[in-house]
């Protein structure tokens, strides 16, 4: 038996050598190149390149949505974790172009479509104090994040990224802010880490903050302002607010949408500062990112009543699907090993930012509302 195995191994090695020698022979005609077919419609070639990765990202998004529906956990977190399990698809193969397309172009479409959820009437119905509170909370949280990141030995850009995610609208804000920050070797890893942590913190806040509001004896309006002004993601704000009462849920949703509206001035300001800080762009006129123009246009159209409710609802649902697909693609671009190497400081930074905006809004609600 041992001899047979040895003979078989020898024959196999000889066969490999034979084929290797045949491959090395000169004078063999080269294999004919596949004919290049002309595009039958515009961008056919581009679509052929991106569709494998796009389909994979969308499929992971569908799986994440199913899990979220059946197990009551944040869909963004599922999309990230499932995407990271398929990280090998971004290392080589036909899916790379589609994954890149999903993490960038699809992301921008999703952020732009968020504007269909907001009207000027919703914002103005809150009155001056909640508006001032939201603006103050957003600005101070981002500044706090940038300063604390520097003290912790992290980059200031990472502090701006996490501060924007905590202050505005969680994962969506993280993606929007990351799209205008300078690109570095760790940019995508930092974005994924921010989304994972801010989603986890938002889920904890969704459970704890309604209990805290009840324990402090907040009215429905006070509880709505506190929940809408502090919890990171829109879905968790809605869940926490309506778990108390319909009035609290409505108030929390409007306050949260005001924070989402802050995405435009914040992202534009960051893009302007980044552009001025780059020697290559010194003196150049600032350009508003296209997806922010779309965001503002949809807010204006919806505020003027030109956007029918079914269309606005469809745009909101499409926005959610785009963002879930983009998160899945970002997950595929990041490895668990890269995340594990960052240590405790980034997580500590986001916890501190969450405590900052929570304490600020809590004091304001107790004192002013």
UniProtKB/TrEMBL annotation:
InterPro entries in the record: UPF0324_pro
Protein name per its UniProtKB record: YeiH family putative sulfate export transporter
Transmembrane region(s): 50-67, 73-89, 126-148, 160-180, 192-212, 224-245, 257-274, 286-306, 347-365
Cellular component, GO annotation: plasma membrane
Compartments it resides in: Cell membrane
PANTHER family the record matches: INNER MEMBRANE PROTEIN YEIH-RELATED, UPF0324 INNER MEMBRANE PROTEIN YEIH
Domain of life of the source: Bacteria
Family: Belongs to the UPF0324 family.
Keywords annotated in UniProt: Cell membrane, Membrane, Transmembrane, Transmembrane helix
Pfam family, one: Cons_hypoth698
Membrane disposition: Multi-pass membrane protein
Organism from which the protein derives: Glacieibacterium arshaanense
